[in-house]
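DM from R.C. (forwarded with permission)

"hey, sorry to bug you on a friday — could you get me a structure for this? deadline for the figure draft is monday and I only need the backbone to look sensible"
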Amino acid sequence: WTTPNLPAPTTGPDNCTEGCCQQLKSRINDTQYILTNHSSVASTCYYRELTDTSKHPKTFQLQENCTDKAWKKKFKCIDEELKHDCSTPNFVTWFDVISRCFHQDTEGKEIMDSSFCQPKPTEKYLENFAKTIEELENVVKNDSALKNLSDKMWDQVVPEFRDFCPGNFTNMIRYLKITMTKAPQFMANTTPSGLPQIQMLNCYIRTEAGKQFFMNPHVNQAIIDLEHAWGDFLDSEESLDVLNTGQYGWKGTCASEKLQMPQYNYNKSDKYWGYKSWNDFFSRAINLTFRPNKCSGSDNCMTSYGDSQRLTISTNLRFNSSFKAKNEDYSLIEIFNGNATWANYFVGGSLMQTLFMPFNYHRFHASVAGEIVLAQVIPGLLYAIGNTSVPKYGGTNKLHNWVQTALFGFINSLTYISKVATRGVFIIKTNLTDANGNPIYVGEVAIGLQSISSVVINETIHVGKIVAQGDELGMFQYGGSSGLMIVSDPYFQWFNGTSGPDKDLYKLNDKIGEFNFCTPGSGKSCSKIEDNKRGLHWGTALGFPVIQ
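My reply, with the result:
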């Protein structure tokens, strides 16, 4: 690749508008390059070689604006740069995060480069999408209070999010019709900001009116139906197009580096790695030789139930009195859906809340050996949020800041979400007793974090089943997830993780704690493990990029 030697433009607008980019294009070589995209916000022009007609062509960009002063910037070959620097974002506008073909889909405009577009779903799925979206429209249209909330939530969108929000309820519906047709694409250098719907609806959810709107049971049911229709699409072969080797594909250089696919069970030679759908890829099984049991041979040892990051630890759990953790309240009776027997097992015990990054391993396993006394999925709310505050932007690029912080309203609400969202709840009775002579129980709560919130319990798991430590219990589907590990033993010691600057990252089967560690007379004291204060992070061991 050679950088074109271009003279400085003598005239042109201050920003990289289409006209300005076309002016630069003519200075390169009008017959050799095609303008594929431009962004006034990011002051960037994108081009590709005319002769490259592949579905996912190499592209390069000119960054900064078109003035003489800024023309010192050189062209960068994006594909070549990403091979060496995967911190370079591969998006330049907010709708890129949802689809590179967004303007074509929403406004019927002919886009500059159609090579990035996902194939349109077949009529079967389009009809299903249209039916469920119409249901949501009718729910709002026939309820004046909901109509009022739908108007207010747009009015209440904060300035920081207003540039990245569809607009009024009519436009929200219009955009939903587009996001439903998209399987999640790879986005480079972003924190997990969720699935397309979360990315688009985030601005509304983070308002008080939006919080009330999405908590309405009729709206919630309409959203559940809508997301299930999308889930049917993600379970189909038609969703596999995003498993490609381009910049936005999950088999591309940067995506593959993050995914660490050699640790999973997959077919390297197959076009789609042997997966039958996008969801099949998302919930893929891991090769357990990469997750050895770190508690082998130790009866008092508890392992991590999956690949996740510690958020907070709470001790001295109480039955129905809420207690503070991460500025929100936990309550055992609420977590266990009002069942006093289940909640009472854990009074006086402790818990750890963790987050499963969107593209870590998304199955969960038994952290101890014992008898299953509860295995149940409790239905709940979608798009539930307790904290509507908006994080302050830390940089000058509003687009990048929005993508980086979009999910944090949900992250800051995980305590609230743990008792209202769809969740799979498990209780295992171990063969151990605590220092008071009581049986030791371990609870695992697999929480569907927004979107479809689908939690699936394996068919072999049922009440009365005897499980070994490390046995698979179930899986998440379609999107990001959170979870709780709860122990009844008041003398249990939680341990730090094995990786991450704050030792807050745990892989499946890592040693996560020890029972009867600080019993009276043992001479040991249980120490406090600090909550996560640095925030979420995404290293190569456990961290993965956002899906759009």
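R.C.: lifesaver. Residues 1-15, 64-84, 323-327, 536-548 have pLDDT under 50 and may be disordered.
me: no worries. The two ends are 30 Å apart (CA to CA).
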